[in-house]
Amino acid sequence: MSSKFLDLQKVPLEVKTKASNLQDDVTLLMPPIGLGCFASHDEEKKKVAKGWILSALKSGYRHLDTAWMYDTERLVGEAIRESGIDRREIFVTTKLPWHHPGYVLQSIDESLKAAQLDYFDLYLIHFPQAVRYPEGYGRPKNPDDPNAIEAIKSPTIQETWADMEKVLASGKARAIGVSNFSEKTLSELLQTAKVRPAVNQIELHPFLAQTKLLQFCKQNGIKVTAYTPTAYEKGRTNPVIVEIAKQYSVSPSQAVLAWHVKRGCAATPKSTNEARQRENLMLPDLSDEDMKRIDALDSNLRLCNFPNERGMIYGWTMEQLGWD
Ligand SMILES: NC(=O)c1ccc[n+]([C@@H]2O[C@H](COP(=O)([O-])OP(=O)(O)OC[C@H]3O[C@@H](n4cnc5c(N)ncnc54)[C@H](OP(=O)(O)O)[C@@H]3O)[C@@H](O)[C@H]2O)c1
């Protein structure tokens, strides 16, 4: 079997966005593999996160994926400065937490302040649900806390997107997009959008291949980034993936990440381990036949964000989310 590896520098995703006048077309290049910078809500784990973000930058990562909710924006900014790498060479994504009137412009300012950066490359609405923040509670950091959030229908996704467009116009983000959006919620947003979302970041792996949503995004010029891209232990132990990985002398996670890239998606694997970070940048060029074998594993299985015992995901039903 060929030991050919993909040259990731040659396959960046062309992210289509607009200049701050919201008229002129701009294309940004997003490296297909980014480092997931969710460090858990455990303070001890967060303390060491700067070290592994820095090791990833030194290992060649030029795409970092953080979020207001991860509370790692400060660490991302510090790691970038400590790395000595020119800021302009690194594609940094962060996310608006739950959307709510007045919070979009406030949120990006908080994120920029935390990271001590002048701009983000990509700013995403983290979830399509709007959330009411209980009086005096402050802003919820842990979305699993049922007392902290109450998902509501207003403001609409369209109202929040109009504020996201103001962020783009301000130059504080070079591109704007969404996360966890379905064809249903994207269609709602597109009805009034002046600027289309540049990216939709979704749970995506061989067991949740999201083929129809990928097609919809492609038709609408929206690039897709995969989260939970390695599919955790399920991906690492699946016999088909293990067998394919052996053929190319790589690990199962490398085989799965290669599948994402060959499908034209970006992926943001998180690894705190330098050897595995390097491994995740060394991806084999899978044959069409092996791609099809991995495609066939799709079972519409969510491993990261799935409904609770009441059938809800952060206050919304699967139907409201438009998730199958
Ligand atoms: N938009 C959203 O709603 C959303 C939701 C979830 C995640 N995300 C983003 O996606 C990122 C990644 O998501 P995730 O953590 O759920 O999934 P993941 O990256 O697929 O899984 C992370 C786990 O895989 C292990 N791992 C990574 N590479 C490996 C390799 N080559 N071999 C063996 N184990 C490997 C890591 O362990 P070690 O650290 O020990 O290597 C870690 O336990 C997050 O950090 C975040 O940026 C976004």
What does this structure look like?
- It is a single chain.
- This protein is of the alpha/beta class and 324 residues long.
- It has a single domain (8-321), classed as TIM Barrel (Alpha-Beta Barrel), CATH 3.20.20.100.
- 35% of the residues lie in helices and 18% in strands.
- It contains 13 helices and 14 strands.
- Strands 3-4-5-6-9-10-11-12 form an eight-stranded parallel sheet.
- The mean pLDDT is 92.
- Bound molecules: NADP nicotinamide-adenine-dinucleotide phosphate.
- NADP nicotinamide-adenine-dinucleotide phosphate is lined by residues 36-38, 65, 126, 179-180, 201, 227-230, 232, 236, 251, 253, 268-273, 276, 279-280, 304.
Short characterization:
Helices cover 35% and strands 18% of the residues. Strand 10, helix 7 and strand 11 form a beta-alpha-beta unit. It starts with 12 loop residues before the first strand and ends with a helix.
Helices and strands in order, then pairings?
Blueprint: E1 13-18, E2 25-30, E3 35-36, H1 43-47, H2 49-58, E4 63-65, H3 73-83, E5 91-96, H4 103-115, E6 120-125, E7 130-132, E8 150-152, H5 157-170, E9 173-179, H6 183-190, E10 199-203, H7 211-219, E11 223-227, H8 232-237, H9 239-247, H10 252-262, E12 266-267, H11 274-279, H12 288-295, E13 312-313, E14 316-317, H13 318-321
Parallel strand pairs: 3-4, 4-5, 5-6, 6-9, 9-10, 10-11, 11-12
Antiparallel strand pairs: 1-2, 7-8, 13-14
Helix pairs in contact: 2-3, 3-4, 9-10
